[in-house]
């Protein structure tokens, strides 16, 4: 009798448990369909997108994911340093909700102080004199500045060409045989230099529709051609397109991106893509004297928010090291830019061989800039032909 009653009680208990499980399952499905329904019925601007998921994921360091894996397999935790085997999830949650990193006060100051966001950049390789107090930056000019009429000294370009000439470049041992393998363009086309602008002294007004960074790009392409490397230079006025289409200055990369994509489609021989810009820093930060001659210093900018970041970064590092050997002090270093307040890609996600180079600052002369363009072409040619030998061991003959 007792056994029968106990079995009856177990059936009742089990029956109650089964009912609870069924009810919970039903409630779970209802909640899931409700959440999915709400998410799909929201306006597009309020829906969760891949970019928003990516932004959340950026707050979680790789160590956190390895730590999660270690719950299933303890061997995963052994690959982490001892001090990082127990990540601080509370700090990560706080950063995700407030965008403030307790270990980096710049994350708080950057959102409170105007202009402080330029210090969000990270110095990957620091050249001579580069630190967080003299980071390169570009000022976004207001519309009236971009449209203002300014007189430029066109004659000075010819003089700069003659004055900047180094030793004659010997005929190249190898060439690309007429193929254009380097593509040079200028996203912020109007960026110019004060010495070439008559009567202009305000650094925020160093812009011109024709006498600008495109002249540096043309010189760089010319010097590469002398060294057997076919280079195509695009001088399209992207800023003019911005103005005509009522777009914001930060959208210049969207405009130049289309041009780069078209170039890649038309010419499958293109291997390297160089976007030339100008720093807003003053002369003491952007000029170096090498063997008694002044050069405009350069700095490499790599976007941290692109899938090809590692490859782009390696090229910038390699070129920086080569410049250090032949032209000490010419390269200020390599800087990574990503996150809020910056493009973070700079079209570098289009190719593993894409870099952005800041040539000089607002106070540099075209004589100094052309001299630097020649030096960069000199070093780049060494890098290019060495890479060609590595990829094609039997490429000792003319291309």
Describe the model.
Helix content is about 45%, strand content about 10%. The chain has about 400 residues and is an alpha/beta fold. The chain folds into two domains: about 40 residues, no CATH class; about 270 residues, 3-Layer(aba) Sandwich (Aminopeptidase), CATH 3.40.630. Helix 7 packs across helix 13 and helix 8 crosses helix 13. It starts with a helix and ends in an 8-residue tail after the last helix. The C terminus is likely disordered. InterPro entries: Spore_II_P (IPR010897). This is Stage II sporulation protein P. It comes from [Anoxybacillus] calidus.
Lateral arrangement of strands in the main beta sheet: 1-8-7-9-4-2-3
Straight-line N-to-C gap: 99 Å
Largest sheet: 7 strands, mixed
State Rg. Answer: 28 Å
- Under CATH at level 1, the class of the largest domain stands as Alpha Beta
Percentage of β-strand residues? 5-15%
Task: Supply the number of structural domains.
Answer: 2
Mean pLDDT: 78
Oligomer: single chain
Structural class from helices and strands? Answer: alpha/beta
CATH architecture heading of the largest domain: 3-Layer(aba) Sandwich
CATH topology group of the largest domain: Aminopeptidase
* Residue windows where pLDDT falls under 50 for at least 5 positions: 395-399
Annotation field: number of helices? 13
Write down how many β-strands occur, each being a DSSP E stretch of 2 or more residues. Answer: 9
Query: Globular, elongated, flat, extended or rod-shaped: what is the shape?
Result: globular
Helix content: 40-55%
| Element-level helix/strand string | HHHHHEHHEHEHHEHEEEHEEH
